[in-house]
Amino acid sequence: MSGAIRQVTIRGRVQGVGYRAWVEHRARAHDLEGWVRNLSDGSVEALFAGPAGVVADMVERCRRGPSSARVDAVTEHDANAEALNLRRPGERFSVLPTI
């Protein structure tokens, strides 16, 4: 089983609709590592690390999001393990402050 680390930015109506909590719940349920945070431009950014197929599925789920969200675009790219260092100590998946 090969691992993958993908960073995604989700644009649309994705703040104030529970998007970060939805991402956190789904990521933890699938035992992914990473983080999610709001960006000051109104988008949401997330990092997912784990088995390649599970990470790809999570990125696809982000294209839909929770029922209260409206996702207009998702951009994604490979990331490295160093990006995982943004997590809070001791957490596999963190909700980070807005930047």
Walkthrough of the structure:
There is one protein chain. By secondary structure, this protein is α+β, with helices and mostly antiparallel strands. It has one domain: Alpha-Beta Plaits, CATH 3.30.70.100. Helices cover 22% and strands 37% of the residues. The protein has helices at residues 19-29, 52-62, and strands at residues 3-13, 33-38, 44-51, 70-78, 93-95. It has a five-stranded mixed β-sheet. The radius of gyration is 12 Å and the shape is globular. It starts with a strand and ends with a strand.
Cα-atom Rg, whole angstroms?
A: 12 Å
What is the string of helix and strand elements?
A: EHEEHEE
* Top-tier CATH class: Alpha Beta
Overall tally of structural domains = 1
Fold blueprint:
Elements: E1 3-13, H1 19-29, E2 33-38, E3 44-51, H2 52-62, E4 70-78, E5 93-95
Parallel strand pairs: 2-5
Antiparallel strand pairs: 1-3, 1-4, 2-3
Descriptive labels:
alpha+beta, 99 residues, single chain, 37% strand, five-stranded mixed beta sheet, Alpha-Beta Plaits, 2 helices, 22% helix, 5 strands
